[in-house]
Design goal:
alpha+beta, 11 helices, two-stranded parallel sheet, four-stranded antiparallel sheet
C-alpha cells in the first residue's frame, strides 16, 4: 500500500470513529463547473440580502486561495436527523437541524480532533477546517468527493441516508487518494419543486435564495414582506419541506450525537407556548442553539407573522 492510500484509509477510519456519517476526498482545484452557475445566481440577485455571498468570489471557487499549497479537500457529513419531532402539529415549526446544540461548535470540535490526529500520525500537515462559516461551496465539494449528488432542491442527496446532515471540510496540503463522483438519482421526480410553499425552487437544481422560507426566517433582518403572509406553512425558523417530501429521506435514521438532542422542553411546547414565549424561556431553551442567531426579537417577529 502506498502512502497516499495508507493516509487516506487512516483519515477515513478516524472520521468514522469521530461519528461522521461519511468522508470523501477530492483534489483541491478550481471548481470549473460551479463558476458560471454561481455568477449567474448572483447576477439574478438570488442571494437577496445575503450580500456576503458576493464576497470572495475567487476563494469560493478555488481552495488554493484559501489554503496555500492545498492538495486535498476532505468533505465530511454529520447526521442530524432527530428521533422525535415537535409534538403539537399546530405549533410553529423549527427546522430539525436547530433542535440541538449549534452545529458549528459541535463539528468544529470534531474537525480539530481530526486535524490533530492527521498531524500526530502523518506528520507536518497544514490546513484549515470549515463549517459553513467561510467562502467554501460545501455541497459542490461533497458532490465532487463522491458523497452524493446535488438534488433538484439544491441540497446534497445520498442514496443510503437522504439529506438530513451537515457538511464540513478540511482543506489540507497533503496528497491523498480522490473519490469518484456519483450519478444523479433524482430522475423525473419533482416532489420538492411541487411542495415548496413559496415556489423558491425556480427550476430543477436552482433555488432562489431570496424566496426561501429559511432566508426570510433566519437571514432577513428587516420586516417580513406582506406578500408572503400565509405562505410560510407555519415555519418560524428555517424550513424542511423540500427535504421532508424527498423520497430519498425515507432512508433517514436517527443520529447518535448527544449534543444534537433537543432541550427537554423544546419538543413539547404547544402553539400557545410559542406564541407567549418570554425572553427567559428563549434563553433557556436555545442557550446553545443555532436559533440564537435570529435573537428573541427575530423569533417573535416570525411567530407573529404566522398568526
Amino acid at each position: 500500500m502506498n502512502n497516499k492510500a495508507k493516509y487516506t484509509s487512516l483519515i477515513k477510519t478516524e472520521a468514522k470513529r469521530l461519528g461522521f456519517l461519511s468522508c470523501g476526498i477530492s483534489k483541491a482545484e478550481f471548481l470549473e463547473d460551479e463558476a458560471p452557475r454561481l455568477e449567474n445566481w448572483l447576477n439574478k440577485n438570488m442571494n437577496g440580502e445575503m450580500r456576503y455571498m458576493e464576497n470572495h468570489f475567487d476563494k469560493r471557487l478555488d481552495p488554493t486561495k484559501l489554503v496555500e499549497d492545498s492538495k486535498s479537500v476532505i468533505s465530511l457529513l454529520l447526521n442530524y436527523y432527530p428521533e422525535e419531532t415537535q409534538k403539537d402539529n399546530k405549533a410553529p415549526k423549527l427546522s430539525k437541524y436547530a433542535y440541538g446544540n449549534d452545529y458549528h461548535h459541535v463539528i468544529k470540535s470534531k474537525l480539530k480532533t481530526l486535524t490533530h490526529f492527521i498531524q500526530d500520525t502523518i506528520g507536518e500537515v497544514s490546513g484549515r477546517a470549515f463549517v459553513d462559516s467561510a467562502p467554501v461551496l460545501d455541497k459542490a465539494w461533497a458532490a465532487k468527493s463522491g458523497l452524493g449528488w446535488i438534488g433538484k432542491h439544491s441540497n446534497l442527496l445520498t442514496q443510503q441516508v437522504g439529506s438530513f446532515y451537515f457538511i464540513a471540510e478540511l482543506i489540507i496540503d497533503l496528497d491523498l487518494e480522490y473519490d469518484t463522483i456519483v450519478s444523479d438519482h433524482c430522475g423525473t421526480c419533482t416532489a420538492c419543486i411541487d411542495a415548496c410553499p413559496t415556489q423558491a425552487i425556480v427550476e430543477p437544481y436552482v433555488v432562489d435564495g431570496s424566496k426561501c422560507i429559511s432566508y426570510f426566517t433566519i437571514e432577513l433582518k428587516n420586516e417580513l414582506p406582506n406578500e408572503m403572509k400565509g405562505k410560510f406553512d407555519n415555519w418560524m425558523f428555517g424550513c424542511d419541506v423540500c427535504q421532508d417530501v424527498c423520497p430519498w429521506n425515507r432512508f433517514s435514521k436517527a443520529h447518535n450525537e448527544p449534543l444534537f438532542n433537543p432541550h427537554p422542553e423544546l419538543l413539547g411546547m404547544s402553539k400557545k407556548d410559542w406564541e407567549e414565549i418570554t425572553e427567559d424561556v428563549f434563553k433557556k431553551v436555545f442557550q446553545k442553539s443555532a436559533v440564537k442567531r435570529t435573537k428573541y426579537s427575530g423569533l417573535q417577529r416570525n411567530i407573529n407573522f404566522l398568526k
